[in-house]
Model the fold of this input.
Amino acid sequence: MNILLVEDDPAQADVAEKAIRQAGHAVHRVAHGQAAITYLEANEVDLVVLDWELPGVSGFEVLYWMRRNLGREPAVLFLTSRILEVDIVKALDAGADDYVIKPFRTKELVARMSALLRRTRRSEKIESAISVGPYVFDITQRSVFLRGETIVLTEKEFDVAAYFFGNVGRVVSKRLLAKLSWGRELDSTSRTIDTHIYRLRRKLALGPENGVRLTTVYTHGYRLDEVEVSKAEPPISVLAEPDDHVERSDQSEQGA
Done:
């Protein structure tokens, strides 16, 4: 895989470049935002490891340029020393696929890169079907199957689930999920998204026994990852609907 590393700190760039090469990837390294744009205009890459704080053209400006001119690809892994929720959400909503807090650990950096590269290789996400492990989403018919068995989802549930499965390894913010399902942001105190996710976990049987895990990323949103199928128990197919006592707050916002 071809990776563009954009980092102006020589010491951190050296560490990141070495880790990327040891992981078996080709890497081109630049230290400025404008140099990154120039390189991307002439070359195809699979992943951009992008520092937020760059001289001249910032990493955030590079990200905006990429999404305006290159679309959803290549994937972008943000390197940032900013840890405030508002900054992280801003980056994810602008089109970053994931982030690593600086100073980074090389093993974490390589692991997150690998997850994004697996998603990049999955061409099904831009076609009429999405296939992840035992799950198949028929986008045209708006149907989902787990080992050939149909799972019945509402319209909103299908939209959210299809987005997760089409973006495996990417952190998806609650703000984006709200816009995806309701076309607008929800009140910060609303539990609608949490209830929605709870139902998807149950209906789709999202867990290691079926080769996936839907993880809550504290204060930011959720991320769906592929994992090794658990040998501890047999694969689970479709689970029953949540019990009636499940939280039903904001029902007027949920719809069907």
In short: Residues 123-254 form a domain with the Arc Repressor Mutant, subunit A fold (CATH 1.10.10.10). The chain has nine helices and twelve strands. The two ends are 42 Å apart (CA to CA).
